[in-house]
Amino acid sequence: MFSTKRIKTGQLSQDEIYELLVKYRPEQILIGRFKGFIYTSSDVDSYINKFYSKSNDISVVDHYVLKSLK
């Protein structure tokens, strides 16, 4: 989970988000309020598209599930 404060104050970069995804490889990812921030990183976007499947179960946020779980 990332807070608005960390992103707005520059305490969390797109590179750090990418590193966290690679390191922890969460089973699910929910992207809501920070879509613009997350998707403008080509590394993060490519990683999510490579290893996760987008679920259509939730319409308010983008929900991704690790492909290896399906």
Describe this structure in words.
There is one protein chain. This protein is of the alpha+beta class. The chain has one domain (4-69). It has 4 helices and 3 strands; from the N terminus they run ααβααββ. A 3-stranded antiparallel sheet has the order 1-3-2. The longest helix is centred in the N-terminal third of the chain and has 11 residues, at 14-24. It is globular, with a radius of gyration of 12 Å. The chain starts with a helix and ends with a strand.
Q: Let me know the number of strands.
A: 3
Query: Gap between N and C termini, in Å?
Result: 23 Å
SS class: alpha+beta
Put simply, the count of helices is: 4
Q: What Rg do the Cα atoms give?
A: 12 Å
**Poorly predicted residue ranges:** none
Keywords for this entry:
70 residues, alpha+beta, 44% helix
Q: Secondary-structure blueprint of this entry?
A:
Layout: H1 4-8, H2 14-24, E1 28-31, H3 35-39, H4 42-51, E2 52-55, E3 62-66
Antiparallel strand pairs: 1-3, 2-3
